[in-house]
Amino acid sequence: MIFKTDDIKYLYHYTKLETALEKIIPSKKLRLSNFTDTNDPRESKTWYFEMDNGINIPSMYDNKKGMWWQHLTKCLKHPCRILSFSLDSPPIESIDLYQGDHRPRMWAQYADNHRGICFVFNREKLINTAKTIFADKGKLFYGKVDYDIRNDALRPDELTINPEYFIKQEYEKLIDIMLSDNHYRSYLFRKHIDWKSENEYRIIFRGNNPETYEYLPIEGSLVKITLGVDFPKVYIPLIESFCKKMKIAYDKVVWYNGVPYSDPEIFCNKD
Q: Which H or E run contains 70?
């Protein structure tokens, strides 16, 4: 099953130097992370719901609500695997400053404080690969993240649960409703507005085995590698060799008078 919402051309994946050199480049794959391992407490912590007041609950279940919320949160989130990307932003004064691989805070936070790598993908091709790998194994979701200034990130109807699902232990039926076309974005693609500068795009896969890792091949969708401004020069021959084999381009970020640009002296084109 596939849920989509986007019309973006490129996706930018920032990563640490060690991860890029020891895992992504040798395997030509991205590993999807556990949804609950993100650095956002909204995604890693338990959600607390409300019971539908129109349905009577036997008193014997009154003290089980906390356990229900924890179990529902685990059933919903634990099987989810996620890949996060950044996007280009509309230019204001400098085009380079709003290019998806020229984001200073992303380099600092996710790419080894400017020592790491940003992998640039053709969105359509990467999504097509994800469909091929995941669509028949579970639920595949992808699209831009919404950023909400409200404290109530979930609508009242998204926080109100029919208790009969808990009493009958029909958790998967309930989750099917929560992740339906009308609701999945609220649970998986909404973040606090303070994260807005990341301009995030996500690929999320919810499979049948919550204990396994999932991997997404990058060959055919990777179009460029961008090196951070402090990327160690000793590894550049490795990058050149990899890009030549993959028939893709690479470049390096440089800073000039406080603004990031692509280094014209190191640019290597696939042609």
A: helix 65-77
pTM comes to: 0.86
Cα–Cα distance between 53 and 65 in angstroms, integer?
14
The encoded tokens of residue 255 equal 């800073």
Q: What does the DSSP 8-state code read for residue 100? A: T
d(CA 141, CA 153): 19
What's the pLDDT tens digit per position in 226-248? Answer: 999 999 999 999 999 999 999 99
Radius of gyration of the chain (CA): 21
Adjacent-strand bridge partners of 86: 12, 200
Q: How many CB atoms lie within 10 A of CB 53?
A: 8
* Amino acid sitting at position 36: T
Q: What is the biggest distance separating any 2 CA atoms in the chain, rounded to whole angstroms?
A: 73
Q: Tell me the one-letter amino acid at 101.
A: D
